[in-house]
Structure formats: structure tokens, C-alpha cells
Amino acid sequence: MCGIVAAVADRNIVSVLIEGLRKLEYRGYDSAGLALVNESGLLRLRAVGRVAELAAQVEATAAAGNSGIAHTRWATHGAPCERNAHPHVSGGLAVVHNGIIENHEALRAELTAAGYVFTSDTDTEVVAHLIAHELKTGADFFDAVRAAISRVQGAYALAVLREAEPERIVVAREGSPLLLGVSEGADGAIDGYFAGSDASALLQVTRRMVCLENGDCAEITRSGYRITRVDGTPVERPVFESQLSADAIELGQYRHYMQKEIFEQPAALSATLEMLEGARSVQPGLFGANAEAIFADVNRVLIIACGTSYHAGLVARYWLEAIAGVPCVVEIASEYRYRESVANPHTLVVTISQSGETADTLAALQHAKNLGMAHSLAICNAPESSLVRETALRFITRAGPEIGVASTKAFTTQLAALYLLTLALATRLGRLDAVREANALQALRHLPAAVARVLELEPEIKAWAERFSDKQHALFLGRGRHYPIALEGALKLKEISYIHAEGYPAGELKHGPLALVDRNMPVVAVAPNDTLLEKLKSNLQEVRARGGELYVFADADSEISESEGVHILRLPEHYGSLSPLLHVVPLQLLSYHVALVRGTDVDKPRNLAKSVTVE
Ligand code: G6P
Question: Which InterPro entries does this chain map to (predicted)?
């Protein structure tokens, strides 16, 4: 992953670099670094840990410069330590990199034989030496970068700074996002050129941005920028005005972003469903201008996503098949992109992503397109993301910025969007009469209030969390459309509390996981009052008979009672098809409170990142 910022201006740009890194920290936060050129030459500062550590170094050293590059890292090659932190240097130049250089071993061997000494375990360092090598042949800086990257295989966004030419920074993109920023001072005159991994890093200086495409190289100078393809052919890319909000995202009354985001779910759902105000049916137009024509040409759905977004897709499959009667498969993007599969041009390819920048999801979409499936829809929380630019149709969830690494409000708003998609397809296929559609819309409109009532269970969930805090393992069980909710509950617990957790379809318990059950393994069951409740109760008996301690999230009217080793919390109301949106909420709260008791870094759990832009 990693985040990149670069700046050339007529003023000291160090604060721009640090602020940009703060905004990009969601992409990785195990180390950070920057390189500047000032009158003393090339200065490099690197720190293990958060951007704050680097900022402290900057302050302590009063580092300053009019041009510089900076990086926040999520380690791929080489442990997170100072030696491996970017920038990497060679022959008076410094490089920051986001992505993976796949042929780094061969290049490292070649460069070592040519006399270059490696000081890190990273794949990135080969790029620094390759460019230095090209410069030695007398090549121009821009051309040297182009020549170097033409030897590189893999994914990259790069920024390169050279001590001898501090007014030029060269950047390149292949597979990892990179934007240029054109900043105007108060008088309207250009006062600097910038580059960054995403718009959030650049909004502090400008809204005017240029999105580089794969295979683009660019140089930014104090007086302008130019873009070419890797072979040197000049290209123009449009300047656009970013519409993103630059407002600081405050924690307010909350202790963590994850807690804030869990409690924002009623508002996020209201915003996402706002367009239903007064609507009597779900119009295809909600998904884009061409939706009607595209929906008329599809007879199946392929959902592609990663992580929590994948779990949203798994829930949607139950809806799409049961309500709309549309066959649906759900694929993990990193698997699908390399799997030999059977393509059908009448497939609606639905990509789900909070960030819209997940490398595997983007690549899987491209793979589906290459197989001849042109009907694509993005369900995404980032309106200006790569994913949204690459699909024919889109539905933007209005969850607002999600900062906590563990996804919460993005998930429930994705589910709302997927339910709308189900209704739109069901109506088109004549599977939903006016009464059922009106009821479904009414249920959606009432959803924010229903979620708000579930949030009131927090005190009881907090008490349960205490009992999980000394456990090493936990099992989450669900059935039907709540099986993906069990998966999501387990993912939440493991990612932020580091307790090993598995989600299982309850009926599958006896085929293996039951062997693990003893009194040290809490078993969490999602038990809404639906047609599978009696089946689930039998599965829970199997757990109880082996001494397993059960924590059951039931509905107000689920016929299930407390007994020794069986703890029950009831959600205020049963919510029919939309019940997964309610039942995930207590599981989010449970993992949040378990993590609090265990004292982990809730918003930035170890080894993870918010947006996974490498495969
Ligand atoms: C990372 C995040 C998860 C997220 C997943 C997919 O692993 O930590 O919270 O679910 O990426 O991200 P996306 O932005 O594509 O939804």
C-alpha cells in the first residue's frame, strides 16, 4: 500500500508533506520518511511508527526545503524498520514507492554485480539504483526515470527527487493511484505543483487535480508539469476540480473513530437512502443513466470484493436469488482475478468497495471486462476513486469518510445499496408487486431508526465484552443470510482485538469446528426470528452439550431462553430480509469493546491498513 506526497513550490513545503502523509496514513502506518533538497543538499529523515514520529523529527531538526517527497509505509518487502523506510537513495537521488516490484530479485542481482550496494531489504531500492545507473550514462532525469521503469515489472506509483535538479520531481504510475495537484495562490497565480496518492493529501493546497493513468510518467516543476507515456509520447490528461470535503474529521465525543463510525450508522444510512424520499419505486436510474438498458440485458450477477465488502456481497447473494430470482455468485477479488472461470456477457459485474482503490478489486474488474463482461456497477463510498471511473454504472454510498481500519458504516450502507439493487432488478423482472415494493421501501426508510435502537444495547454488550477479553479463540455462528454476518463478526473481532475468531454456517459445525468447542471457546450465535431459528437452536444445543458457552444475539420475539451457559441479548425488533443490517451492529460493538478491554490500537490495528492498494 503506502502513501506518497511530493511538492515543488516557491516556499517551504515540509508542512505540506507532513500534512499530506497524515491524510494518507490510512494506507499504511508502520514507518514514514521524507527527502528534501535545500541549500545543504539532499536531506532524508525516516522514522519507524506513525507519521507523528516523523513530524517530531522534522520539528527537532527544523528541516526545510522548497521541494520534497514523502512516504508512509505498509511493509511488503522487508520488516518495518528505519533501514527499510522510504525514501531510498542512490547517487544523489531519492525515491518513494507505492506498489510491488515483482522482478526485484533479478534486478537486485544485476545491480549488485554492477557495483551498487543495497542498504535495505525492499523491492523499491532497485528503482533508486536503476535510475542512478541511467543518469550515469548522461541521460536526462525524466528520461532516466522512464528508462528505469521500462525495466520494472509489477505495480508502482513513484516519486523521484534529485539533488542536482531540485526544481523537478519525476513521478510515474502503473497500477497504483497517483494524482497531480495544481495549486493557485490568493492572486490566482500558480504557486506550486504537487503529487499525491489520493485527493485527500492534496486538498490542503488545491482542488485542481490531474489523475494520471497507468503507464503515465510526469514531471512537476515550479512552473508547470508535463505528462508522457513511458515511451515518451506526450499525453494530455484533464484537470478536474475535486469535490471532496477538506474538513478535518473530528472525533467529537467519541474515543475512537471506529466507535464514532458505528454510531454514525443511522445517519450514514439516512444519507445513502435519501433519494428514496417520496419515491414509490426503486428506479434503475439510481445506478446511472444507462442502468435501464444494462439491467434489461443482464440475467445474472457476479459480485467481486475483498474483506468486509466481500461479506456485504455474500449477504446480497441471498437477496438477489430469493427476492429478484437472479443467479448470483460472489467472488473474492484476489482469487477471481487469477481463476479460469466461465464468462457470460449477460452478467452484471458488481464491484463493492469502501475506498474504490483496492488493487485486487480493480484488477478483478479489469479481468471480468477482458473476459467480455462489459456491464459493470461499482458500489463505492469514494466518488472520485479509480473504481468509480472504471465502471459503467455506480451507486455512491454516503457513509462519509471512514477512518477506522475496521469497516462498519461502509458495510451497512453497502448492504442498503445492494438491497436497492435487488429491488430494482426484482421489479424489472416482475418479481415484486407494488405492495411488496412499497413495504420494502418502508422498511428501508425505517432502517436508520431501527439501527439507532440496536445501538442502545451498548451497555449490555460492554458487559459481555469483559468475558471475552481473556479468550484466545471465538466462534461465530449464523445461518442463511446471517451466515455472512457471522463471518463479519469474526473478522471484526480478529482484526481489532487479535483474538482468533472463525465464522461458520451453524449447520456445518458438526463437520469439524465442533471439535474445538470447550468452555474456553465462546460461541457467538446470530439468532434472528426467521425460518431457520429452530435449525439454529439445534446447532446451539450441540455446542452446549460440549460445554461451550453461548452468547446469542436474538430478536425480541425469538423463542429462545437463557439458561446456564446460554446468554441472550435481544434486538428490539425482527427486521425480515433486512435483518442482517441490524444484526451486524451488536457484533461491531462487541469487537470494539473487547478491543478496548484488551488495550489494542482500535483504529489502527497492527499489520493492517485501511486501503489495500497492493495485491
Ligand atoms: C482492507 C480494510 C477492510 C476492507 C478491505 C476492502 O482490508 O481494512 O476494512 O474491508 O480492505 O476494502 P475496500 O475499500 O475495497 O472496501
Answer: GATase_2_dom, GFAT, GFAT_N, GlmS/AgaS_SIS, GlmS/FrlB_SIS, Ntn_hydrolases_N, SIS_dom, SIS_dom_sf
For residue 515, the enclosing domain spans 458-598
The sign one gets for the Cα dihedral 77, 80, 86, 89 is: negative
Query: Which amino acid, 581?
Result: L
How many whole angstroms from 611 Cα to the centroid of ligand 1? 6
3-state DSSP assignment of residue 579? helix
How are strands ordered across the β-sheet holding 347-353?
Answer: 328-332, 300-305, 347-353, 376-380, 393-396
Q: Residue 610: its pLDDT value, please? A: 87
What CA–CA distance (Å, rounded) separates 158 from 613? 14
Q: Please name the amino acid found at residue 124.
A: T
Q: Is the pLDDT of residue 252 over 90?
A: no
* 439-477 per-position pLDDT tens digit: 999 999 999 999 999 999 999 999 999 999 999 999 999
pLDDT at 326 over 80: yes
564: DSSP letter: T
Residues 395, 418: Cα–Cα separation, whole Å? 9
Q: For 388-400, what is each residue's pLDDT tens digit?
A: 999 999 999 999 9
Beta strand pairing status for 328-332 and 300-305? parallel
pLDDT in tens, 33-46: 999 999 999 999 99
Residue with cell 469518510: 401
Ligand 1 pocket by Cβ (under 6 Å): 306-309, 353-355, 358, 361, 405, 407, 608, 610-612
Active site residue 492: no
Span 284-313, average pLDDT? 97
Percent with pLDDT over 70 in the chain: 99
Q: Do 345 and 281 fall within a single domain? A: yes
CATH number assigned to the domain comprising residue 200:
3.60.20.10
Say how many residues make up the chain: 615
SS3 annotation, 369-380: HHCCCCCEEEEE
Structural domains counted in the chain: 3
Cα–Cα dist 190/241, whole Å: 15
Residue 316 CA, ligand 1 centroid: distance in Å:
17
Co-location of 65 and 202 in the same domain: yes
Are the CB atoms for 69 and 45 separated by under 8 Å? no
- CA-CA distance, 49 to 604, in Å (whole number)? 11
Q: The sheet that has 179-184: what strands, in order across it?
A: 41-48, 31-38, 67-73, 3-9, 190-196, 179-184, 208-211, 239-241
* Residue of higher predicted confidence among 65 and 277: 65
How many angstroms is it from 313 CA to the middle of ligand 1?
13
Question: Which residues sit opposite 99 in a β-bridge?
Answer: 156
Mean pLDDT of 361-387: 96
Question: Are both 217 and 356 inside the same structural domain?
Answer: no
| Collapsed DSSP state (helix, strand, coil) of residue 196 | strand
Pull the grid cell for residue 561: 431462553
Confidence of residue 186 (pLDDT cuts 50, 70, 90): low
What are the φ and ψ backbone dihedral angles of 426, each rounded to 5 degrees? -65, -40
Q: Which of 492, 494, 604, 610 is catalytic?
A: 610
**Contacts by 394-398 with C-beta closer than 8 Å and gap 24+?**
394/287, 394/288, 395/286, 395/287, 395/420, 395/421, 397/268, 397/272, 398/268, 398/271, 398/272, 398/274
